[in-house]
Design goal:
Shape: globular
Number of strands: 10
CATH superfamily: Aldolase class I
Strand content: 15-25%
Structural class: alpha/beta
Oligomer: single chain
CATH architecture: Alpha-Beta Barrel
Number of helices: 12
Helix content: 40-55%
Distance between the termini: 49 Å
CATH topology: TIM Barrel
Length: 266
Amino acid sequence: MDWGMRNRLAQIIQPDGHCFFMPIDHGYFQGPTSCLERPGETIKPLLPYADALFVTRGVLRSAVDPVKSKPVILRVSGGTSMVGEDLANEGLTTSIEEILRLNVSAVGMSVFIGTKYERETLLNLAKLVNECERYGIPVMAVTAVGRELEKRDARYLALCCRIAAELGARVVKTYWCEDFDKVTNGCPVPVVMAGGPRCDTELEVMEFVYDGMQKGAIGINLGRNVWQNKYPVAVMKALHSIIHKKATAKEAHEVFIEEKNKIMKK
């Protein structure tokens, strides 16, 4: 692996081999998502506990301080919306020149396997890898499922992750599922867990994150289950303890309760 590629991966994956990415890219297809209407204000108290931001170029320029930022994973796919016909019909939105100009540590794009746009999104991933490898920029493939959440089982996600890795993705972001080790065991590159829709309780978040880490994930790319919570900093600290301090789900939940109580007393 070339020095530049190794250096950029080291910026987003910490020395312990783990990572906590903070995604704030939801607006590229959802618009002003709840609690993310002003992304700069949302992330300000959370940045100390994140290893990298996953963000579009528009929000990066308008809402992220270039002096005090964490490493950036740039969202470079889009072209669809929640009110459009099909979320899977994405294309590449950002040139390699723009990627270099923004000095990002990595880029990310979605692939929609099992949809009528499967071929297009996979070829877009291959094209992106071809361009980014030339300049030592890691590509993170996101195994998106659109509105069809029932697809999130181990067999389907293992298929998605392996195909993304085969096409050259350096990291794959996918959903947690039952038998998650079947997903990680079949993927030759690091796997990061997505958060998906909000969970019912904080403990539920801690439990799936802990389980996924035990079964081979290197970290998480969690947004809504953090910044849509009433106590986002407490959730960040709790999850950080699982990712980087080897805490159990129960121990992390105790961190959450402790931090929540501190905030309530202020």
